[in-house]
Specification:
The chain is mainly β. It contains 1 helix and 35 strands. The site of beta-D-fructofuranose has 12 residues, from strand 1, strand 5, strand 9 and strand 13.
Length: 479
């Protein structure tokens, strides 16, 4: 069997390991994304930044390694995660240098968006700037942003005693740096910390924003939430620059309920908010290793804030350039079984489903294997199962990594599904409100099948299937 697992729209390294997305930015007419990368193995190792560029946020070109661990302050565990910005027509990367476990914040810049030179000021934030309650060995993932005449750098820091804070620094020139204090705190992280922080300002007029971070070992208080070992959360709020405070207006939002999602990063460009994340999870096996790569990213999604909540959408504008076929089917009732085949391993199914008891949606492939979605009216839940995957995925602590149930607050009677499948991974958006990201290893084309096993009333409306091709075609530009 040809194990054609490698996704096309989801970033992977041509060879080696990747974890967190870094430096998500727009510079010199292109989108840039970097990945935490070990070029020598399909496992985590000395961290480099692997560079990808794109014109449409769908297909990415791998253009080489932007940062190597080659300086006295980073030639240990390497160049850890960080962010990017443009200053005076130069592209700046801000990252964590790790040497002898000591973590410091560093910068590199480029005029051509390809070759990056590390600054003589490095490290520009180190133990001298860090209050002694924090652990210098767990002080990482700087997010740089410019606001009201200053550069701000937000960094995750583990408190020596317990818990973790996101702490803020301010500078004009990267020489004089002022420590401003913590803006977000979380306790009870079993010795973990808040990784990969991010802040996304939603407009230029006021300081409304979304704060993101990835708490390690976040404890779950509900069997329907935060079921991964590590999680990614977001809070909508406002940044109060006078008092250096983030004032949340929303509760904690779980960005994705799936098995594989961590370390998100955002980019606001042309008034659109994009979200990317590592489509994997720590403390698991990586079944694609035998193909020479491990780790991948979700296809950047679009974020919109409505009613103090975050809604997620696939990037229609980017995807439409790759459409090979569109099939729109008249509304139909599922008596028994209704199935639709696909002629491409990259496919999207979009539909509304109305249900009074329960129903099953299977994303099955030519080998008869399926990723199953069980909708259950009796407890307003949806259960996802990837137990049928050709490659078995497991948590190293032995806990389950293949079945997940989520609660739909508004009930399951009427749901909108948007499902994007790309070879060995699936992203599902339900009501654009609940996102579910999963690796799922089967080969071939995934059809969709609706099953009515319990004499339910199941009605499907506005069903559209998009089959995609790997390269964009002029002829489809208008679709
Ligand atoms: C999160 C993380 C970051 C760190 C990077 C190292 O996945 O642990 O905190 O910078 O990975 O590769």
């Amino acid at each position: 069997m040809n194990k054609d697992y490698r996704p096309i729209f989801h970033i992977t390294a041509h060879k080696g390991w990747i974890n967190d997305p870094n430096g998500f930015s727009f510079f010199d007419g292109k989108y840039h994304l970097f990945a935490q990368h070990n070029p020598f193995d399909t496992k985590w190792g000395p961290m480099h930044w692997l560079h990808f560029v794109s014109e449409d946020l769908i297909k990415w070109d791998e253009v080489g390694i932007a940062l190597c661990p080659d300086k006295p302050y980073d030639n240990g565990d390497g160049c850890f995660s960080g962010s990017a910005t443009e200053i005076d027509k130069k592209h700046y990367l801000v990252y964590t240098g790790v040497k002898d476990k000591v973590q410091t914040q560093c910068i590199a810049s480029s005029t051509d968006g390809l070759n990056y030179i590390k600054s003589d000021l490095n490290p520009f934030i180190d133990r001298h700037n860090l209050p002694s309650i924090y652990d210098i060995n767990n002080f990482r993932d700087p997010k740089i942003f410019f606001r009201h005449g200053y550069f701000y750098v937000l960094v995750g820091a583990k408190v020596k005693e317990d818990g973790s804070h996101l702490i803020l620094f301010r500078t004009k020139d990267f020489k004089d740096v002022t420590y401003l204090g913590p803006i977000f705190e979380m306790n009870n992280l079993s010795n973990g910390m808040l990784e990969c922080c991010d802040i996304l300002f939603l407009n230029e007029q006021n300081d409304e924003c979304i704060l993101f971070c990835s708490p390690q070992y976040k404890k779950s208080t509900s069997k329907y939430k935060y079921q991964n070992i590590h999680s990614t959360i977001a809070l909508i709020g406002k940044f109060d620059f006078d008092n250096i405070k983030f004032v949340p207006t929303s509760d904690e939002i779980q960005l994705d309920y799936g098995f594989d999602f961590y370390a998100s990063q955002t980019l606001r460009h042309d008034n659109i908010n994009y979200l990317v994340a590592w489509q994997a999870m720590w403390d698991r096996n990586f079944p694609s290793e035998f193909l020479g790569y491990a780790g991948q990213f979700i296809v950047p999604r679009i974020l919109k804030v409505e009613n103090n909540y975050i809604y997620q959408y696939f990037n229609d504008d980017g995807l439409k350039k790759y459409v090979k076929n569109i099939n729109q089917i008249d509304d139909f009732k599922v008596e028994n079984q209704c199935e639709f085949k696909s002629n491409s391993p990259i496919v999207r199914y979009k539909f509304n489903i109305q249900i009074d008891k329960n129903g099953i949606i299977s994303l099955y492939n030519s080998n008869g294997k399926g990723f199953y979605i069980y909708i259950d009216k009796s407890d307003e839940t949806i259960l996802f199962s990837r137990e049928d995957s050709f490659e078995y995925i497991f948590n190293q602590d032995g806990s389950d990594a293949n079945v997940r149930k989520i609660l739909i607050d508004e009930g399951v009677d009427k749901l909108h599904f948007d499902i994007l499948i790309d070879h060995s991974c699936i992203e599902i958006l339900i009501n654009n409100k609940y996102a579910f990201s999963a690796l799922y290893f089967a080969c071939g084309e995934y059809g969709v099948c609706f099953d009515n096993e319990n004499d339910s009333n199941i009605n499907i409306t506005n069903f559209i299937k998009y089959e995609y091709k790997e390269t964009k075609g002029e002829e489809n530009d208008e679709k």
